[in-house]
Amino acid sequence: MRTIKLGMRVVTALAVAALAAGALASQGAPATDAEVQIDQYAFLPPRIAVKPGTTVTWTNEDDAPHTVASSAKLFKSKALDTGDKFSFTFTTPSTYAYFCSLHPQMTGTVTVEAASGAGAGS
Amino acid sequence: MGFDKPANPNAIGTLEEALSKINALAVKPSFLIHTGDITHLSKPSEFDDADRIISQARLDVHYVPGEHDVLDEDVKLYRDRYGRGTKGAGWYSFDANGVHFIGLVNVVDLKAGGLGNLGNEQLEWLENDLKGRATSTPIVVFAHIPLWSVYPAWGWETEDAARALDYLKRFGSVTVLNGHIHQIMQKVEGNVTFHTAMSTAFPQPAPGTAPSPGPLKVADDKLRSVLGITDVTFKRGQQRLAIIDEPLQR
Questions:
Q1: A104 has a chain B CB within 8 A of its CB
Q2: CATH number of the domain bearing residue B15
Q3: Total domains in the fold of chain B
Q4: What is the pLDDT along chain A (122 residues), one digit of tens a residue?
Q5: ipTM of model over 0.90
Q6: Chain B 37-56, CB below 8 Å of chain A: which residues?
Q7: Which of A4, B93, B154, B193 has the lowest tally of Cβ within 10 angstroms?
Q8: What domain range is B85 assigned to?
Q9: B75 interface with A at CB cutoff 8 Å
Q10: What does pTM read for this prediction?
Q11: Torsion angle in degrees (nearest 10) through CA of B119, B120, B125, B127
């Protein structure tokens, strides 16, 4: 239940972030939250790049249960039934590999980009 | 137990039908083997429902877990119910009617990008379990995920099964039974015969025929023709076990 509530809050935050997106982009620094769908035994998109402080929310839209498990055991969701969500906030720049511990052929990565110089290229 | 998606909203009903089918067999089986995925989400209520229905057979049941039965980190829910007298995450062996039966666990500690996994501790146990047994002893091995390469892209393979099969190859008759893929496939390799079985809950697509191995929705009046039980008969003096796959409806 807790993860579901967390997920709801993230969706609300996302909506607010989307409204303010133009202003945020010019300021560069703040992280917007990110979403990954789980469907057809795959993480979509399988690879995402985010800024430090980003909360990533996975939503299982498949008929089968799945988990989100860090390969380095930094985070692991409970088994997510259809409609369940799991969120994790990434703070340190690195590439985080994860997989579904039930169907380990399902893999993905979250790359947290260095905060310094954010916006310099855009 | 616990599956209620469109592919079969009434998995309780079809398990009950499977038990009726078992109870109606002309020859009463010596015991039942369950190759795992007793539950959908390892919930106590799902295990309770399964136990209540399966016990209607009034037969000993030998289980191994599927990945859906070990969703709690320490595999406590499964082992508390079915783990008595087993090693590790629940592997064991026993003898019946001169046949040596081995239940293996290949659904715990799965690695990213990987397949089913037995692990070193279990493989060492298996090597010792087989040591000193006459090669004329018929062997039946059962585990959840196939011990042969059915379709690695969907994870339908056990990555260290080759070592297990290496220990088994000196025996004259080896039968390997698996679940997991919810459809019937067979393969013969030397003295080893591999069989998978139908599910009692929902079918899955044939390898590569769908974007994913997820539950396959078939027409309502076809569902019972792709669910069922497997009847294994030990025929002394013959090389292989005779296996008859029995759908709930033909």
A1: yes
A2: 3.60.21.10
A3: 1
A4: 344 444 344 444 444 443 433 334 334 456 789 999 999 999 999 999 999 999 999 999 999 999 999 999 999 999 999 999 999 999 999 999 999 999 999 999 999 998 765 444 43
A5: no
A6: 40-42
A7: A4
A8: 11-247
A9: no
A10: 0.85
A11: 110
